[in-house]
Amino acid sequence: MPRRPRICFPGAVYHVFQRGNSKRDIFLDDADKWHFLKLFLEVKKTARFLIYCYALMANHFHITIETPGATPISKIMQYVAGSYAMYFNKRYSRKGHRFEGRFNDVLVQKDEYLMQLSRYVHLNPVKAGIVDMPEEYKWSSYGIYLGRRKDILVNTDMVLSCFGSSNDEKAKVGYKNFVEKGLVSLCEEKDWLESNLIVNKFLGSRDFVKKFRNGV
């Protein structure tokens, strides 16, 4: 059965996630994670897109991307995944595929749904039992949202604007409180989001889902 073409249009927001082949680790140390993020900076030189949030785990990653100029998400991810696989195999004298099949992507409605998704991404290391609090995890974009470090790769304006001016300290505090509220209901949030991310392939209102299931 032929693969369904990925939906692509100006301003599309995708949540992308992918695991290592046979669920093996794809990042063995900090240098691997740095290199993976650097590849996104490289492809941004030729492809226009925004990154809203990310979390790099040992054997998988989550990253949320908007393509304002309708750059195919497959073009971005093929460059990153392909380049990273070559880097990894060369560094560790390995052969074969590093990732498990095609990357998974979910079409995301902006505003509230993007805000909820960013919380899900930033709480991922807590759910995995790696840290107790999301700010303790170095390899997510959460520290950038809190203003504790700067990173030209990530655009925080869209999400922080839901809590006030994106440059306002109050917006950062508001977002931090929003994320931490999710700590008390991790199981419920996981059930709601993962059913959309894995099964439905859309994250948005009923009208949003209906629109893209039936074709734009």
Provide a concise account of the structure shown.
It contains eight helices and five strands. It is an alpha+beta fold and 216 residues long. The chain has a single domain, classed as 2-Layer Sandwich (Alpha-Beta Plaits).
Largest sheet: 5 strands, mixed
The CATH class label is Alpha Beta
The percent of residues in helical segments reads 40-55%
User: How many β-strand stretches?
Assistant: 5
The rough form would be described as globular
What is the succession of H and E elements? Answer: EHEEHEHHHHHEH
Give the strand order of the largest sheet, numbering strands 1, 2, ... along the chain: 2-3-1-4-5
Report the average pLDDT across residues. 88
By DSSP (H or I, 4+ residues per run), the number of helices equals 8
Question: Which spans of ≥5 residues are poorly predicted at pLDDT below 50?
Answer: none
Please name the CATH architecture: 2-Layer Sandwich
What is the CA-atom radius of gyration, in angstroms? Answer: 17 Å
In the residues, how many domains can be counted? 1
- Kindly estimate the percentage of residues that lie in beta strands according to DSSP: 5-15%
Based on secondary structure, the structural category is alpha+beta
The CA-CA distance between the termini, in Å, is 22 Å
What does this structure look like?
- The protein is an alpha+beta fold and 216 residues long.
- It has one domain: Alpha-Beta Plaits (2-Layer Sandwich).
- 44% of the residues lie in helices and 14% in strands.
- It contains 8 helices and 5 strands, in the order βαββαβαααααβα.
- The longest helix has 20 residues.
- The radius of gyration is 17 Å and the shape is globular.
- The two termini are 22 Å apart.
- 32% of the residues are buried.
- The model has no long low-confidence stretch (mean pLDDT 88).
